[in-house]
Amino acid sequence: MKQGKQMAHVTLIRRHGIAGRKMGQPWRSGPRPVLVELKIKLPVTFFKEGETYIAYSPLLDLSSCGATLEEADQRFGQAATLFFEELEEMGTTEEVLKGLGWRKVQRPRPHWEPPPIIKQIQREVAIPIAA
Predict the structure, then answer these.
(1) What residues make up the domain containing 42?
(2) Burial (0-12, 13-18, 19+ Cβ within 10 Å), 113
(3) Which of 16, 18, 30, 34 is the most exposed place for a label (fewest CB within 10 A)?
(4) Are 16 and 43 in contact (CB under 8 A)?
(5) Would you say residue 90 lies in a domain?
(6) Residue 60 burial (10 A CB sphere; 0-12, 13-18, 19+)
(7) Is omega for the bond preceding 33 within 30 degrees of 0, making it cis?
């Protein structure tokens, strides 16, 4: 049984982007605003169901799948990005992340931190089946 504290690693990076516009629309005038982007390394569990690989993260309660392990991983990254983009667009980031156990931290800059994973184990359970 492997024990230990696992955490998502959080890094803030700067990138140039355009706030307040729809994708594909050009920037109208003036300097482009600088947006802060949060990069998070989340624990992702991979398993196989038949011929399909599944990628799942309990910190987002989000999963994706693919025909290969690499495809499931790539699709999970895309799904996570879309998940956060949709939260922002719908204005529900705070509500959803709080519901998943995340907390808003103010330092060094305001950002969200996922709940720490304290322990992950494989537990044996009894499953009743008809004889």
Answers:
(1) 9-113
(2) middle
(3) 30
(4) no
(5) yes
(6) buried
(7) no
- Residues 6 or more apart in contact with residue 17 via CB below 8 angstroms: 32, 33, 34, 35, 37
Percent of the chain surpassing pLDDT 90: 50
Task: Tell me the average pLDDT across 33-56.
Answer: 84
How many domains would you assign to the chain? Answer: 1
Q: Is residue 127 part of a domain?
A: no
Q: Could you tell me where the DSSP H helices lie in 4-109? A: 69-90, 93-99
CA 66 to chain centre: 17
The single-letter DSSP state of residue 30 is S
Least-confidence region, from 4-13, 43-52, 119-128: 4-13
Q: Is the pLDDT of residue 128 over 70?
A: yes
**What's this model's pTM, rounded to 2 decimal places?**
0.69
Phi, psi of 111 (to 5 degrees): -160, 170
**What is the Cα–Cα distance from 120 to 112, expressed in whole angstroms?**
22
- Using DSSP, state whether 113 is helix, strand or coil: strand
Does 44 reside within a domain? yes
